[in-house]
Amino acid sequence: MLVVILIGVLIFVNVIMAFSLGLAAKPHKNVILENTLPKEVLEKPEVKALTKKYRLRLWQIAGIFSLLNFTMFLTQYESFLMTLFWLLLLIPMGAFYGTEIFYIRQVAQLKAKKGWQLPVTPILVDTKLTQTKNRKMLGFKYLIPAFILSVVLALIMLKSQNDNAVILSISLVVGGLISAGLLYSVKRLPVSAPTNDESINRQYNDLTKHDWSVVAVGSAYGTLVALAMPFFASQLSGVWAQITVWLLLILVVGFSFLLVAYLISLRKKQDALLSQVTEFRYQGEDQYWRFGVYINESDHRLLLPDRIGLNMTMNLGRPMGKIFMGAIVLLVVGVLFATLIPIYLMDFTKDPFQAALKEDELVLKAPFAATSEVKLADIQQVTLVDKLKSPVERTSGYGGEDYSTGYYMVADKKATLYLDSRSLPFLKITTKNRDYYFTFKEEQKTKQLYQKLVTKLQSYSKA
């Protein structure tokens, strides 16, 4: 089942990458693949041939790697499976990005060869528009209800016995700050004068500011719902918990498609406005988009609209832009190693799961998982079981085909797992508020621990 899910995720990513990067080949503000062309050449056969070839290459990459994804069925070790997943995620991204850069330069070479250079126009300053640049955008007052609800929800989480209360509360705060930061960035965006028509420029700026502020505010409420539902699902039991989780997945996917559709609608409305004028003002910005991202040390803006019209991008020429990009790289590398190292340890070490029976407690450990110190006085029962009772829901930790570690809900009760699912039976330790499931890789060692623990508990109760 895990392999099927991973393959589905990879195919979905490939399709999204091919579709989203392909939009760069469709004219927007006279820009095709980061190159601004005269309006009269946008439909030239040479241009259309290049853009068609570019989109074809993207879908070829998506198709090839989608087929390669099925090699994941051939892996025997879970560590190899996850390594292959990361490779089939990152390598196609590099191929997509490299293809985009290649065709950006192809269009630039065609532009230079044909002499389609545009005269650089001076920046048009419209003081009236500058003074009222934010008149259509949503204000920060729209974030207040989301902020209040987030605070209330965070307090409820922290007072609960949920294993992920702290993480979810921090995520609420971070999500709210990101939404507020995005709204602030939209507010700070300078006015754009893509044409010589003041009326068109005003409509263009009002439209862009309004729609992007809607995205910023909507993301605040979307984050609130996305974090609230798993928390409340953990408080439910049985079929209602499963319904809540599935509803969350449907909402996340639906919100993602709605966001893309909304931004595509914004792009179409922008293009409709720009189609009303015959001239487009070119300010020589192509040189800053040579690698598909914006790099301009002399531009004070940190965030700005991308040239596709679907996103906000970061100026990597600014110090903060470099720091942010470096932080993303470090985060990806950190997640990669945090994902792979424990699985390699579980696959290729003799005793990845460890149990130490001490004088008055049992200590359970697993790679990159929280250590459990179970007081013998709290243990109500010790048994050997062949399977986990349904429903089994992971709240945090690792859950793969062979290994399960971390915090779970098992049969509607909190549980901590240290399991190799191929090694039966499992040792189940029952306490009032939580169950613990543990197994060594070797069946006999698990049974020996069970006998030692039973003997220890008998002597402990007599004492």
TrEMBL record:
Transmembrane segments: 6-25, 58-77, 83-104, 138-158, 164-184, 212-233, 239-264, 323-345
Transmembrane as UniProt keyword: yes
Source superkingdom: Bacteria
UniProt keyword Magnesium present: no
UniProt keyword list: Membrane, Transmembrane, Transmembrane helix
Protein's recorded name: Bacterial Pleckstrin homology domain-containing protein
